[in-house]
User: Fold this.
Amino acid sequence: MPAHLTSPVPHGSPGTTKPETLWRAVFEQSHLGIVMIDPATDRIIDLNQRFADLAGRSRDALRGQDWMHLTHADDLAHEVKHKAQLRQGLIPCFLRDKRYVHPDGTVVWVHVNETRVTVTEGEPPCFLAMVEDVTEQRRTRLALNAEREAAARLEQEQRLEAVADQGMVGLLETDLDGRITFVNDRYCAITGRTRESVIGQRLREITHADNRPHLTNTIGQLLAQGRSFMHESRYVLPDGRKVWLLCAVSLQKDTAGNPAGTTTLVLDMTERKRQERAQRQTLELLHMAERAAEAGAWDWDMRTARLNWSPALFQLFGLDPEQTQATFDTWRARVHPDDLAVAERVLEEAVRHRRPFVASYRIVRPSGEVRWIDAHGQHRYDADGAAVHFTGLCIDATLRHQTESQIRQLNAELESKVEARTAELAQANAALHRLARHDVLTGLPNRLAANERLREELVRMRRSHLPYAVLMLDVDHFKRVNDLHGHAVGDRVLQRVSQGLRAPLRESDFVARFGGEEFLVLLPHTDEAGACLVAEKLRQVIEAAPDPTAGLVSISVGVAMASAADDDEDTAVMAADARLYSAKHSGRNRVVHQDPANG
Assistant:
């Protein structure tokens, strides 16, 4: 070990370590790779076993070798730049992630903290590098980012679908030259422009300059491949503000199947981008804090039972080395009561079986602050093989535990949001389904619902051989009501007729507003005689309830029986409609159940 790396340390102070012993303990037992480099030649002076493992070579093979030859070729430029600044004294140290290449081609990612060290005045300086394997950390972060991005894309797609159903998505169409040919109101609201100002304008002219090359490239791919795609793009508003948009772009084709232009659905995602940026900044700050986590060394002389702590370890435990003795009782007093038994058992087993000590536990500082500690220790032996020292490190792992807890919480919150959004979409779809099948004015099922019920009833009749009847009803002289009294009175008449039609019917019967002043009644398990009785009953009910303004209201009714031989459900409807027509031309306010030719 070079003499100039050994700094004088006062002896006899409580809890301080012997400098040579502590340095060698840290050097040999550290979970970090440690290497010393000659700044003049960049050749390795000394290294510990951990660094040799990280470099994929033996210690003997590395001593005297050029330290830069271990670095991946793509990382050398940055390495040379920072090394020159460090050598000239422009920076005190530098930290960076880079790659080592093993002789077998294996690539290992490491985090390097390299500093210029001058311990004793007059001695030449030395570069000291602390190297940590971050390969698994990078892999974990990449996997976590992939999961988050997948979940975010799922939530984003679901949100886009929900917004589209509610008419809140911007719509944009362009020709093959990229000129805008159509936009909807929502697009104008998102981009802060009027329809007149954008029609005929090139899309790239309102796209942020940084995104124009990407826009040109993606449109080219769309025209070449014909596949729809989604991308994020920034738009520049007239007032200079910039908005982030999620764009779903598809290709328009003419009748011959040739490209004719593009259609783009646009969703404003500016706020989500702001939140993502804030979250990235928070995670970056956490990562920087994690790198700066402190570690302290300890050494237990097993021959004298003396325990030594480095000053950094006292600081880590929140203790003053001038007032506190480094003893096992001191250690026990600071370990969290819930973790003490396990930590002592692991330590005792490591000592008894002469194996490495690895433990994770909490400590409680005198201030009451709780910190997580990762502890590592290993025996050192004399020439006769007797264990003479038990040395190791305590590393502050609080930030790692907090980060893992936050990630678990974020994942749980994300899963909860996805589940909640899925439930909301299901409810919205159910509501849309009902709205699409009911008439707003009367509250009755509409023509779409009627056609679905007629198809179901025809299938049921063919299976059960039980007949059903169809009644077509029309309000007499309804146009005259609107002309004389206005549409408000006409709407009220339709509502009163709807209420009158529902009252006499069975629960299994079905009534719908078929269109305008025309209604349809379906009577399952009913023969022709029964259908005629119901039709007459409905006519009488309506006739007996005059409107306060329009006066007498009557209906004409056509009755038809469905048959298993019918081509489809429309056969009986058309027959009932023909008889309704006959009733209208026979004087109105009556029921017709036979064709005129049949008397």
